[in-house]
Amino acid sequence: xxxxxxxxxxxxxxxxxxxxxxxxxxxxxxxxxxxxxxxxxxxxxxxxxxxxxxxxxxxxxxxxxxxxxxxxxxxxxxxxxxxxxxxxxxxxxxx
Length: 95
Description:
Blueprint: H1 5-14, H2 21-42, H3 73-78, E1 82-83, E2 86-87
Antiparallel strand pairs: 1-2
């Protein structure tokens, strides 16, 4: 699929990018390659392909349960901050 220099310039303008002539030529070729690849994917016959979220047939996989466990004693000795038998880490969220 052809992608003109004007279209590259329009995209660059929308993205508020200032491109040199060399960059425009480069991006024009890259966008054409990407569109050709997408076109190739669109032409694939996927009628016999089963939809799957996990990528495997046996979908007995379940999320692991989150549970608090005592840390390994060797690891605890190396930790900077301790509280009882647990390592203390800085807060990630201020809730």
